[in-house]
Structure to design on (425 residues):
């Protein structure tokens, strides 16, 4: 019971046509719906629920909210109570308020990011079906990503003012939503400031991550690919289509994933991420990266900041 | 066939480079190896490439209102990743939040 996995993310885009050309043509997602307000819904070929990405036309970039799917309808009541008892306001949303979903609850993380939990979403099925399926469907575009894998949220961190929303979010996710800590970065003179965390509910190293920064925002949303050769091909797709690449293919020390960071046409950072890293389990001892090694954690080969990891996000 | 190009000058660093009419200023800058304006998302979303166009005319694409207000845009304050030159341009760096961050001495590795 409880949270199963990331369900969807709703992001703002400055130009819907350019965004669709990117998420369909470069990532290889499929458009599944458009609502009266003009929001467009997309899914990966290996996902069964109706959508994992909502694009909303706006005059700025960034994330509107992030949603996780719980296993049972009753989890919404149990988790809602825990969140309220923790001191956070929870809105109860009727069926359909989250499009194509059953009832839901909505609240803000200590960092201010809006989170939604729901138990039911309209189901379309995987592109390969469920009866004697082929390993992948014909006609995939671009990188042909499998599914929305995780997101990284930037959270306000100013140790001198005693502000650490990374630590607050991490405690909240553990105590209210039963997320487990897989990895963390500890910094500061005493090595006790939690500057970044990776947390999971599935058996992969992270379903969400929090990194400290000067202001809250969306760092990236990540889509899953099979392996390193799929990552290389995805980078070729991006070069061919002149996508703004932030960091070319390489390995994360943290989570062990292989990665590319790049931007959508509105400046929202995307990641294509391959490899399940390792088996994450509730009793796995969390991994700690120290301040002098944190960049090896993030970009393992160079051990240095690459691209605009800490300074550019929406 | 080469497109019509103009000279873009960044006052702060005294860098000059050529930029075609069909090319975004920030893209031309980084492609030619200049660094006078902070380069980020190249999508008009992150705000780090904020500049004032002190001289010259340009076409601007849609840019984030979180970083450039309508009044600023009327005042020729724009994101360098969203403009294409129609004449020679002279820019000065305004810098959004990213510039502030980039200039801060990092104390804890990340922030
Ligand atoms: S580089 Fe991000 S807005 Fe221009
Ligand atoms: Fe990631």
């Amino acid at each position: 019971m409880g949270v199963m996995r990331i369900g969807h993310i709703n992001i703002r885009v400055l130009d819907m046509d350019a965004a669709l050309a990117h998420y369909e043509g470069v990532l290889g997602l499929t458009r599944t719906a458009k609502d009266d307000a003009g929001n467009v819904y997309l899914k990966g070929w290996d996902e069964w629920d109706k959508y994992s990405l909502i694009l909303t036309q706006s005059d700025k970039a960034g994330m509107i909210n992030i949603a996780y799917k719980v296993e049972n309808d009753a989890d919404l009541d149990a988790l809602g109570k825990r969140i309220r008892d923790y001191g956070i306001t929870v809105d109860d949303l009727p069926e359909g308020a989250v499009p194509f979903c059953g009832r839901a609850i909505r609240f803000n993380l200590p960092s201010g990011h809006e989170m939604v939990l729901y138990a039911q979403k309209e189901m379309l099925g995987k592109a390969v079906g469920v009866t004697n399926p082929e390993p992948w469907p014909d006609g995939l575009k671009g990188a042909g990503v499998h599914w929305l894998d995780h997101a990284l949220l930037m959270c306000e961190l100013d140790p001198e003012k005693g502000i650490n929303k990374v630590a607050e979010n991490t405690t909240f996710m553990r105590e209210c939503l039963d997320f487990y800590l897989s990895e963390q970065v500890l910094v500061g003179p005493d090595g006790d400031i939690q500057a970044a965390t990776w947390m999971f509910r599935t058996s992969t190293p992270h379903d969400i991550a929090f990194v400290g920064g000067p202001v809250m925002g969306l760092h990236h949303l990540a889509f899953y690919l099979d392996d390193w050769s799929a990552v290389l091909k995805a980078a070729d797709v991006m070069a061919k289509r002149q996508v703004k690449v932030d960091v070319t293919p390489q390995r994360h020390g943290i989570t062990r994933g292989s990665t590319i960071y790049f931007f959508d046409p509105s400046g929202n950072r995307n990641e294509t991420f391959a490899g399940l890293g390792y088996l994450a389990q509730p009793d796995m001892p969390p991994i700690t990266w120290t301040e002098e090694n944190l960049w090896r954690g993030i970009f393992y080969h160079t051990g240095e900041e690459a691209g605009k990891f800490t300074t550019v996000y929406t | 066939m080469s497109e019509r190009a103009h000279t873009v000058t960044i006052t702060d660093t005294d860098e000059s480079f050529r930029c075609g009419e069909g090319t975004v200023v920030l893209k031309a800058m980084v492609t030619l190896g200049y660094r006078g304006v902070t380069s980020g998302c190249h999508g008009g979303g992150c705000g780090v490439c904020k500049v004032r166009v002190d001289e010259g005319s340009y076409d601007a694409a849609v840019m984030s209102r979180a970083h450039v207000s309508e009044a600023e845009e009327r005042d020729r304050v724009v994101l360098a990743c969203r403009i294409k030159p129609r004449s020679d341009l002279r820019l000065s760096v305004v810098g959004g939040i990213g510039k502030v961050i980039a200039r801060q001495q990092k104390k804890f590795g990340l922030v």
